[in-house]
Amino acid sequence: MAAMWFITTLSLLLLSAGVCNGGVTSKYVRLSERSVDIPVGYFSPPPGFNAPEQVHITQGDHVGRSVIVSWVTPLERHPNVVTYWEAEGNHKHKHAAHAIITDYRYFNYTSGYIHHATIKRLKYDTKYFYELGEHNVTRRFSFTTPPKVGPDVPYTFGVMGDLGQTYASFSTLEHYMSNPKGQAVLFVGDLSYADDHPYHDNVKWDTWGRFVEKSVAYQPWIWCAGNHELDFAPEIDENIPFKPYLHRYHVPYRASQSTSPLWYSIKRASAYIIVLSSYSAYGKYTPQYNWLQNEFPKVDRTETPWLIVLLHSPWYNSNNYHYMEGESMRVMFEPWFVQNKVDIVFAGHVHAYERSERISNVQYNITDGLSAPVKDPSAPIYITIGDGGNIEGIADLFTEPQPSYSAYREASFGHSIFEIKNRSHAYYTWHRNHENEAIAADSLWLYNRYWYPYEERISGTMD
Ligand SMILES: [Fe+2]
């Protein structure tokens, strides 16, 4: 008995002393959430002939005065108009914006009519109503435009990734929506997981559109493409990468001089958000490389202090799943991230949660042997938030020991909230699905790299 006590105590001591050389690997024991898809029938289309469905909005220009409204009509092309008006005041005059219409075939699937209408010249920080459809199948939604871009404009983003459409995905979205703070979502890729079904069953793209409508019809989600958006399947003669995704999700890429919707930037409130594509060429001389090189000098931290990057495949991941898949992109772009003092990088792909230290690994030159990450006050914090809860399940096998670059990691589903307070401080929290939204499993006051480049204290208070 005494020996048993000794062994148990020794084990606990070793655990608490940290036999690894990194940060925290949470030992939180979660209830198992079902990572199986919710049946297609649950996401039935709205009632009424040709009713508009799968409604979603995103930012429509570079500064937040435009909104792209997208929706699907299943049977007829028309109406293809969105009607909108200011919610407050005496401005009851209704405006209309016409949509472009597209559709596509994928193997034995034919899409409905997919509409994309850009509403322009909106007022900042103003609530609008909008309507789609006609007669007795009119559907009404609303959104609020962001405040004018400026250095101390508070703004709160939700962050989700790898969502899918399982019971766990449902829980993640409900948790995010139960928090009234979130004003827009940064989505780090892998939307529907249609490609996990036979012949990439594109009905799953439709059901996903219906699933997330309750949030994305009312606030913009900023899109970033993941590997599950590729839908590249030569075995069924589907050879055009990203075909369903690019038909369904439009982004304002031309506003940032990008030549592809897979990489672009926007400004929103006090944030400058750069979206990259892990699955498009990024070597020197490629369109994405050239675009990013020209992009960083355009960021004015006196206007948008917070520089945020979204990409799918994480650069600093200590999970066995997808380990080092982001390495070649890190080698290409990390020096720019450090030179330009990116504040935070959100990635997905790995179905677990992880937060890095502020580290960089840019000194290696093949012969100098300096190939380990080091603490770097100019480096971003890297967040892996691919824990939306899709059909592929949790990634619960971390590399051991926990590497020094890893500050906190946990194999649970959840989402994050990024609350910008002013030019120097932002409050970041990660919420696992099995706790009340008010509880944060991981939290941190983030200090801006341009205005307040000091080392963050874990769970500190704003000073
Ligand atoms: Fe992925």
From TrEMBL:
Known EC number: 3.1.3.2
Pfam families referenced in this protein's UniProt entry, alphabetically: Metallophos, Metallophos_C, Pur_ac_phosph_N
Signal peptide start and end residues: 1-22
Catalytic activity: a phosphate monoester + H2O = an alcohol + phosphate
Residue ranges occupied by any Calcineurin-like phosphoesterase domain in the UniProt entry: 156-353
Limits of the Purple acid phosphatase N-terminal domain: 52-145
Domain Purple acid phosphatase C-terminal: 379-438
Entries under PANTHER family matching the protein: ACID PHOSPHATASE RELATED (PTHR22953), PURPLE ACID PHOSPHATASE 11-RELATED (PTHR22953:SF120)
Family: Belongs to the metallophosphoesterase superfamily. Purple acid phosphatase family.
Protein name: Purple acid phosphatase
Organism annotation: Nyssa sinensis
